[in-house]
Amino acid sequence: MAPTIYVDTVTFIEALDQLMPGFDPEISKLAQRITPARDGKPVTIELTDAKTKELKDTLEVDAALIATGRAPFTQGLGLENIDVVTQRGFVPVDERMRVTDANGKLMMLAHAASAQGISVVEQVTGRDHVLNHLSIPAACFTHPEISMVGLTEPQAREKGEKEGFEVSIAKTSFKANTKALAENEAEGLAKLIYRPDNGEILGVHIFGLHAADLIHEASNAIALSTRIQDIKFAVHAHPTLSEVLDDLFKSAKVKSQVTSRVKKPVAV
């Protein structure tokens, strides 16, 4: 008979001065609401300010699981024997996954590595395939879930300033979704970052029920260069959580109604 395991509370501690520093700042602030309370006994953890290093608090917990990040495991593989130069352990590649002296494509995600591997096979077999790394989604399996694809708001605004285009934001709440209300999971937000001049989707961030599943509609739209002018006419079943994305794209204000592709009538 399997032993019974009792779980009380889990405290999530971030070494930097905010939770989930790689995500959009607005979503990171929402994530702090789901941080569990502090509790425990034998293990003592001292919490210090990330900037000043001043002692702020002390936690006593039953056990501590520490995740310090990941590093490439390339040492000892003999890469130097075949003239492959590494940078901090990574193998630099170009956009077609060819070894080069340019900056490598660094995304510590299993599905990103799989997509990169597919890109390599396509190139080797003579089929040109460039992976759009901005279309690769990421998710945190908290409750509610958090997901993202593309640029954060600060990244998008920096890009806009450099390239001379305006950045707009659209948001929608899970509180307006009947399926979320029926599930008693109405806590949530979806955020769209886009160019109002041409409808390009720059980033989508979701905090809410099944966010890790919902993000793929936005991910595929970015991968296929689908503009808001096109995707806002997509039909979603009712009542479903997918309507959160439907409302999000419909709420965007795009100045140009010219789409990025020529539409052809389909005979039914």
UniProtKB/TrEMBL annotation:
Q: Which UniProt keywords apply?
A: FAD, Flavoprotein, NAD, Oxidoreductase
Under Gene Ontology molecular function, one entry of this record is: dihydrolipoyl dehydrogenase (NADH) activity
One Pfam family cited in the UniProt record for this chain = Pyr_redox_dim
Flavoprotein keyword on record: yes
This protein's record includes keyword Oxidoreductase:
yes
What sequence ranges are listed for the domain Pyridine nucleotide-disulphide oxidoreductase dimerisation?
Answer: 136-246
**Domain FAD/NAD(P)-binding positions:** 9-102
Instruction: Give the EC number(s) under which this enzyme is classified.
Output: 1.8.1.4
Q: Which domain of life is it from?
A: Eukaryota
Into which family does the record put it?
A: Belongs to the class-I pyridine nucleotide-disulfide oxidoreductase family.
Q: This protein is called what?
A: Dihydrolipoyl dehydrogenase 2, mitochondrial
Q: Which organism is it from?
A: Stylosanthes scabra
The gene from which this protein is expressed is: LPD2_2
